[in-house]
């Protein structure tokens, strides 16, 4: 009897140690996710505010072509101001405690941000393609009025693409990622449609535009007849590479989540149980992390943004100087003549 009691006590002790180990492991994962999210929020807010201020203050950046860059920054910024802090709160409480209304609004804003980002990246790629490959028609295509219409159309399509989530009921809380977000298993047909229309098709359009640009750049680099060539300045190529890198990082960060969603939607019963939770969680937080990367890329690869970042950060140490320069910039307004995204002083010339 004593041996049996000792054995039962030992079993209970082992079980308690196992539960404690599981709890510690879960706590470690939560801490890691919270750390990643805090870093993302801070860099997202700081970086995208710098981008917006840079375009607003710098005459070389303040042009019609950069409207899409600012729009992309806004799409990245909104998630750091509302949905991400709610996710962080859910991580700290190990549950969603903000109610269903915040859940639905948070999921909707996150959807706006995601679809808005991919559509703005697509708009930037088309802008780059028109500027480099069809430069003779660029000024007409991207007048200030036309660019504003394109921007309005981009966000109208974003809203129209996000609203159906309310009718399908796909915005739900997922305890694995502590987020109210798009539930991939609510409707297989809807999930497949979302992945194809809002991820794969835009990626194909962007890939086509950048492929055509790459072909032209290679042709210029290995020119055979100098009198029949397109003149591209080194700054044109650098600016193209900057936006190309933004596209690549977006595709890399969002591809795992979309591919998992597509696989699960095709065969939910068979595929869903086989997706490891760690892979699903990692794919989501990779997607979240993407929102803070664009501003870093602009600073690393574009000299105009890098200089303006330094100027703004220095001016913030002297608030009076910052306010004076900002007021001066506000009086100059937006240039009516359009120019390519990222910089205003690059002109592609065509020799016929």
From TrEMBL:
Coiled coil: is it a keyword of this entry? no
Annotated region (Disordered), positions in chain: 1-25
- Can you give the residue ranges of the G-protein coupled receptors family 1 profile domain? 47-298
Question: Which SMART domains has this protein been placed in?
Answer: 7TM_GPCR_Srsx (SM01381)
Show the GO MF annotations: melatonin receptor activity
**Keywords of the record:** Biological rhythms, Cell membrane, Disulfide bond, G-protein coupled receptor, Membrane, Receptor, Transducer, Transmembrane, Transmembrane helix
Q: Which GO terms describe its biological process?
A: rhythmic process
Q: Which GO terms describe its cellular component?
A: plasma membrane
Where does this one sit in the cell?
Answer: Cell membrane
Polar residues: bias regions: 11-25
Looking at the UniProt entry, the stretches that span the membrane are 32-55, 67-85, 105-126, 147-168, 188-218, 239-266, 278-301
Q: How does it sit in the membrane?
A: Multi-pass membrane protein
Function according to Swiss-Prot or TrEMBL = High affinity receptor for melatonin. The activity of this receptor is mediated by pertussis toxin sensitive G proteins that inhibits adenylate cyclase activity.
The UniProt family comment states:
Belongs to the G-protein coupled receptor 1 family.
Name under which the protein is recorded: Melatonin receptor 1C
Source organism of this protein record: Mastacembelus armatus (zig-zag eel)
Species lineage, top-down? Eukaryota, Metazoa, Chordata, Craniata, Vertebrata
């Amino acid at each position: 009897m004593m041996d049996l009691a000792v054995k039962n006590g030992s079993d209970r002790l082992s079980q308690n140690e196992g539960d404690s180990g599981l709890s510690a492991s879960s706590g470690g994962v939560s801490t890691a996710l919270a750390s990643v999210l805090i870093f993302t929020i801070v860099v997202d807010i700081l970086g995208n505010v710098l981008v917006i201020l840079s375009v607003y203050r710098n005459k070389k950046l303040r042009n019609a072509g950069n409207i899409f860059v600012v729009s992309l920054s806004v799409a990245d910024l909104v998630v750091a101001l509302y949905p991400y802090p709610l996710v962080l709160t859910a991580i700290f409480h190990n549950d969603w405690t903000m109610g269903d209304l915040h859940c639905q609004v948070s999921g909707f804003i996150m959807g706006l941000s995601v679809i808005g980002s991919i559509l703005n990246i697509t708009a930037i790629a088309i802008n780059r393609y028109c500027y480099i490959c069809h430069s003779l028609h660029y000024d007409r295509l991207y007048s200030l009025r036309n660019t504003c219409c394109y921007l309005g159309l981009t966000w109208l399509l974003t809203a129209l693409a996000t609203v159906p989530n309310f009718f399908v009921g796909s915005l739900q809380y997922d305890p694995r990622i502590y987020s109210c977000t798009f539930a991939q298993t609510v409707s297989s047909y809807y999930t497949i449609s979302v992945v194809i229309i809002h991820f794969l098709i835009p990626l194909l359009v962007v890939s086509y535009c950048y492929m055509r640009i790459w072909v032209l750049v290679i042709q210029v680099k290995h020119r055979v007849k100098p009198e029949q060539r397109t003149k591209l300045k080194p700054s044109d190529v650098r600016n193209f590479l900057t936006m190309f890198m933004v596209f690549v990082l977006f595709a890399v960060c969002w591809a795992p989540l979309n591919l998992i969603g597509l696989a699960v939607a095709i065969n939910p019963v068979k595929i869903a149980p086989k997706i490891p939770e760690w892979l699903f969680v990692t794919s989501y937080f990779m997607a979240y992390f993407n929102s803070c990367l664009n501003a870093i890329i602009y600073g690393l690869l574009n000299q105009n943004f890098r200089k303006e970042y330094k100027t703004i950060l220095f001016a913030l140490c002297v608030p009076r100087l910052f306010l004076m320069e900002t007021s001066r910039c506000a009086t100059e307004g937006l240039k009516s003549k359009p120019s390519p995204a990222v910089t205003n002083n690059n002109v592609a010339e065509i020799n016929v």
